[in-house]
Amino acid sequence: MTDPRIPDRSAVASPPRRDLDYRTVDAAKSPLDAGGQALVYEAAVPDDEPPDRIALKEPADPGTLTGDVVETFLEEARTWELVDRREREKHRWADSEHVVGVIDTGERLPWIAMEYMDGGDLAERLDGTDGLALDEALWVGECVCRGIELAHNYGVVHLDVKPSNVLFRTTPGDAWDVPKIADWGLARSLSERTRTMEGLSVTYAAPEQFEPDEFGDPDMLTDVYQVGALVYALLTGRPPYVGNRMSVMHDVVYGDPPAPPSAHRDDASPALDAVVSTALETSKRDRYDAVQIFRQALRAARTDRALPPIVADRLSADDRSPRVDAAESASTDTGSTDAASSDGDSTDADTGDPDEDLTFRERVEQIRAERSEDDGSPADDDTTNTSVADESEELTFRERVEQIRAERSEDGESPTDDDSGDSAEADESELEDLTFRERVEQIREERSEDGESTSDGSSNDSAETDGDTSGDDAGGSGAARTDGWFDPAAFPEGSERDLAAAIAGIESGTAELSLADAIARCDDRSLAAALAAMDAPDH
Prior knowledge:
Helices cover 39% and strands 7% of the residues. The protein is an alpha+beta fold and 539 residues long. One of its GO terms (molecular function) is protein serine/threonine kinase activity.
């Protein structure tokens, strides 16, 4: 059911484009806004064609204009007009009204006639407050994301998203006023070189706008950060960092993450904290991959739907809560088919086993905690152990692991080992006390001693790079692990993401490969992290 507070956007559609004679436009004497190097006036159009009231933007000091200033202003007009035209004319954006409409622009003289926004700007609405009501704040954030998403789809980035550039059209009754994005003065095509950051508001700027050499050139993910800072202000009444210009620049680039929204308001949940903090990551690769994913996360937080995987994974890593995992939250609510279909990352899991209520990743963490408490003792007393036959000696390490996995899945029985070369020398009762992971480790050590290589041709010594390769173990590999347990945190971030992607696909029921096949495609440095998960319930 549609929330009655969400207005009919057609009621606030941008006025039609038309040719205006700048000389006949009657502008007020005092400007509505005097930000940057331009002034905006309320103006009347003296004829019978709509609209009869517009906002007129022109340079702050037209008497001292240089050619560069005029060209920069006209370029803003062209960019703004392009984005607005796409929103008006393309069917895909028929339900979108989140870019301030352009009515006409000067061809030689620098002026822009635009839609008159009668509801003021977001900076005015936030002034002296602790933020908007929760649902309205999230909805406004969704609308801003939608307007930025439209621009991104045509290769345009805004690069100056802040409260004073979000204007409102009022709506009747109890419906929320509609926000639209204005001031595309810093916007640029992604094919162009980065412009100067003159006039940039530092409190809503991304790290790469201060240090592009360290964080990369500003791009679409810069807008993601800026919208994140805007949503933070919507929720708290203030930007993520405050202070003088230099202190804010330092904090944005080198400081600790800002206090989460829940530190400022009681109705902000851990899930909402994760939604916002993901957008505000210093490194671009840690943010949402696109602004539309941020929009989906805001909508999920507002409507209590399944969160995008990037947020669910963040929450799982923070507190291991099954409630906040995207796939799990959708699958445990059998009546919430909308939640499952909206994000496409949930499946039903109907089982009586309490451990089955945990996600695969959470089960791995549970096993890890148990093993840590037991100081290296087996994590599962019921784990069926596997011995290896002679013919498997010709297999690669990965193939041998797959063979063990297949044998474990057959009725939970352990095959006998009548004539194994290396295994025959081990005491049978000792083998039965090993977990599957420890048995895999034993195989890895045996193959390392024999000088054999992994399936990609590299030696086991080079594959076992989990940060501690020193030690005096006779086998040469004992120092690469702790009590038979690999530490995924010692492996590169990329390898963790590879594994997380494989696991997420299996949890959601959308995986095209089995976990084993997905692991086989990971690079060797992530193989150890993958093996650390294999003792969890078979997926």
